[in-house]
Amino acid sequence: MSLIIKTKHCALIPSLQEYIEKKTEKFHSFIEEKEIQKIEVIIEQKDYKDKATAYKAQVTLWLLGNTILRAEEKQSTTNAAIDLAAKKIENQIGRYKGRFQNRIRHDRAEKIKAESKIALSDNSNEVDLDQSLFESILVKRTKQFPVEAMSIEEAVERMELLDHNFFVFLNNSNQKLSITYKRTNTDDEYGIIEPQW
Question: What is the DSSP letter of 59?
Fold first, then answer.
């Protein structure tokens, strides 16, 4: 397992690095270390509209079986932002263990063992767009990522684990590119968007 710490517009001082290491080590009390392939923590200092928040902490865990857990929090101090993001990750680990580990069968376990031998690389590329070309629209960046084939249920679970409002996937049942999303004003209702060609 590797821990990667990045900062934007602030310095990675030794006390901050030690605090992040201490917080991420706690994850091993919730999930076995061998299941975690990589942890990335990004700390960013920024002038937010809400003057009480000056730091953003984003914590991402890459687990065996292509599962990603991610949490993001903004607070007035780095430690407060890290604390809240780490707490979210701990809750997500609990959901992951409950939802996914009970469903892993022998063939899935064999696939995960094979995947653990392959070094995980970050395939997502973020491209900052030239603002002069897009002054009339609010697009700030384009994000590219690999699309995986899975069931609708698994896509909803992945979306929940990432704490996102939508998730793009290849639907196993019909081989169509699909988007699952949380319906507004509901806690447990979801929708699916499928293209027509």
Answer: E
